[in-house]
Amino acid sequence: xxxxxxxxxxxxxxxxxxxxxxxxxxxxxxxxxxxxxxxxxxxxxxxxxxxxxxxxxxxxxxxxxxxxxxxxxxxxxxxxxxxxxxxxxxxxxxxxxxxxxxxxxxxxxxxxxxxxxxxxxxxxxxxxxxxxxxxxxxxxxxxxxxxxxxxxxxxxxxxxxxxxxxx
Length: 167
Prior knowledge:
22% of the residues lie in helices and 37% in strands. By secondary structure, the chain is of the alpha+beta class.
């Protein structure tokens, strides 16, 4: 019988849609692999480090107390939800004064800043941002005693956004 394999099973012809879908999946996998392998330039990393240093105001930035929640793989960089929480009792003697979020590769390094006080009750902020491409994000919290705490997350973006200033 024509179309049979050596095992006696019929072979299937691929439709043009199947071939197109296969090519699209292969191309998408290639883009993701490229984004994962492409490190930030020294200029990007230096600009973000400068923004973090300026926010810290001479204080050492310590890891901990801050939790930056964002999906590690983002399909569309145009609308990316994120949340920052800080472990703090939020009392008059120990509370978060400010939360800032910085990014590595967007045209503007300062994604958002939130001013809080003991009256906030809890240090928990959420927003949506745009991401130009796969990159590192840093969330910082300045406490009322002047100490600065941080969390860092790497995010892979499949469909980039806000790239108007790039060449």
